[in-house]
Design goal:
Blueprint (H helix, E strand, L loop, with lengths): L9 H10 L9 H8 L3 H19 L6 E7 L25 H14 L4 E6 L7 H14 L4 E5 L5 H10 L3 E3 L7 H7 L5 H13 L3 E8 L6 H14 L3 E6 L20 H13 L6 E2 L1 H6 L3 H6 L5 E2 L6 H4 L15 H15 L19
Parallel strand pairs: 1-2, 2-3, 3-4, 4-5, 5-6, 7-8
The protein binds S-adenosyl-L-homocysteine (SAH) and iron/sulfur cluster.
C-alpha cells in the first residue's frame, strides 16, 4: 500500500520508513526521536500520516469496547494509582457476579459495543475460579460479546483457565519499558515479571493488549521512543496508551507529567505508535479526555481506532478514580452509548459491527 506524501519533509519520509521498512530493518530509537520532536507543519504532517495509516489498516469503522470496572479493591501499591491499597480515599466496592452479568446483558442489548472489558484492581476480592465462572456465564448468556479481562499479573495457568472459560482477550500495560523506573513505581512487581505475563498470554493464544502511560515522572523522550518500540517488538493485538495524570492521593501526586509543558507530546506519541504498529487496535483512552478538551476525539483523528465507553453502574464510577478528572462519572450507561454515537457521528466514523477481534491473527478457536 502506498500513500501520496503529505508533505515533502523529513517527517513524511521517516513516517513512511517506519510503517513500511524498506530493508526489513526494524525501526530504532533514532528513527523515532525526530518524529517525537515534530512541530508546526511537520506535526500536522505526522498526524495526517498516522490518520492515513489507521484508515488503510483498520478502516473507518470504530470498534466499541464497553468497560465495566467491577471492583476497586487492590492489594498493590503502584505509586501513581488512586486504587493503591493504602489510599483511604475511595469507598471500596465489589460488584456481585449477578451485577456484572446484568451489566454485560445491558451492553449486549444496547447493540453498540461488541466487547465487554472487565477491569479491576489486581486483587479484586474474587478468587480466580470466581472470575472464571463469571466469564463462563457471560459467554453462555451473551455469546456475541467478546470478553476482555484486565486484573493484572497472574500465573500462566490462571490465564489458561480463564481462556478456557471463554476469555478472548487480556489487557495488561507494561507501563514503562525502563526497568529502573518500573521498579521505582511498582513495589509489588518487576518489569521482567510483567513482560513474562504478556508472553504467557500471547503463547496461550489470548489476544493480548498492553501499553504504557505517557509522561511518568522520570520518563525521557528516549524512554518514550523505547516504549513504542517495545510495543512493536511484542506485536500486541491492542495497544492502549494515555497521559499519566498526577493523583494527589498518591505518593507521586505532586510530581507533574513529564510533558506538562508540551501536551502535544501525548498526541505525537499516539501518532508515532500508529506508524510503528499499523495494524494494532489502538483505543482513544479516557486519560486523553482528562488532560485535553475533546482529547479522545482528537486521538481518533491522530492514530486511534477504538473507543471504550464506561459501562460501570453510575453510582460506582466516582470510586474508580485511578486519576482525577476522569470523564463521564455522572453519566449512566445509556448516556454513554448515546454520547459515543454522537461523537463518532460528528467525526464521520461509523460504529464497527461485531466483536472486532485482532487484525493480526484469526480469533482463537476453543
Ligand atoms: N489493576 C489492573 C487494571 C486497573 S489499572 C492493572 O494494573 O493492570 C489500569 C491502568 O490505569 C493501569 O495500567 C495504568 O496504566 C492506568 N493508570 C493508573 N493510574 C494512573 C494515573 N495516575 N494516570 C494515568 N493512568 C493511570
Ligand atoms: Fe492496583 Fe492496577 Fe492501580 Fe496498580 S495500577 S494499584 S495493580 S489497580
Amino acid at each position: 500500500m502506498r500513500f501520496a506524501p503529505a508533505a515533502a519533509d523529513v517527517v513524511g519520509f521517516l513516517a513512511m520508513e517506519i510503517s513500511f521498512p524498506q530493508h526489513g530493518k526494524p525501526p530504532e530509537r533514532a528513527d523515532l526521536l525526530p518524529l517525537l520532536r515534530a512541530a508546526g507543519a511537520d506535526l500536522d504532517a505526522l498526524y495526517a500520516r498516522a490518520d492515513a495509516v489507521r484508515r488503510a489498516h483498520c478502516g473507518e469503522a470504530v470498534p466499541i469496547r464497553a468497560i465495566v470496572e467491577f471492583s476497586n479493591y487492590c492489594a498493590n501499591g503502584c505509586l501513581y494509582c488512586g486504587l493503591r491499597a493504602s489510599n483511604a480515599a475511595p469507598h471500596r466496592y465489589r460488584m456481585a457476579p449477578a451485577e456484572i452479568l446484568a451489566a454485560a446483558r445491558q451492553i449486549a442489548a444496547a447493540g453498540i459495543a461488541g466487547t465487554v472489558v472487565l477491569q479491576a484492581g489486581e486483587t479484586p476480592g474474587y478468587s480466580d475460579e470466581d472470575l472464571a465462572s463469571v466469564v463462563r456465564r457471560i459467554k453462555t448468556e451473551t455469546p456475541a460479546l467478546a470478553i476482555t479481562l484486565s486484573v493484572g499479573n497472574r500465573p500462566r495457568d490462571v490465564y489458561a483457565r480463564w481462556r478456557d472459560a471463554g476469555m478472548d482477550r487480556y489487557l495488561l500495560r507494561f507501563e514503562t519499558s525502563a526497568p529502573d523506573l518500573f521498579a521505582r513505581l511498582h513495589p509489588d512487581c518487576t518489569l521482567a515479571a510483567r513482560l513474562q505475563c504478556l508472553r504467557d498470554l500471547k503463547s496461550l493464544g489470548v489476544q493480548t493488549g498492553s501499553g504504557f502511560m505517557i509522561g511518568l515522572p522520570g520518563e525521557t523522550i528516549e524512554i518514550l521512543a523505547d516504549n513504542i518500540l517495545l510495543c512493536r517488538e511484542f506485536d500486541f493485538d491492542m495497544i492502549g496508551i494515555g497521559p499519566y495524570v498526577p493523583n494527589p492521593d498518591t505518593p507521586l501526586g505532586d510530581q507533574p507529567n513529564a510533558y506538562a509543558a508540551d501536551p502535544d507530546m501525548f498526541f505525537r506519541a499516539l501518532a508515532v505508535l500508529r506508524l510503528a504498529n499499523p495494524d494494532a487496535h489502538i483505543p482513544a483512552t479516557t486519560a486523553f479526555d482528562a488532560v485535553f478538551p475533546n482529547g479522545r476525539d482528537l486521538a481518533l483523528q491522530r492514530g486511534a481506532n477504538v473507543f471504550m465507553p464506561n459501562a460501570t453502574p453510575s453510582p460506582l464510577r466516582k470510586d474508580y478514580q485511578l486519576y482525577p478528572g476522569k470523564p463521564c462519572i455522572d453519566e449512566d450507561a445509556t448516556d454513554c452509548a448515546r454520547c459515543v454515537q454522537a461523537r463518532l457521528h460528528a467525526l464521520g466514523r461509523p460504529v464497527a459491527q461485531g466483536p472486532a477481534h485482532s487484525l493480526k491473527r484469526p480469533p482463537t478457536t476453543r
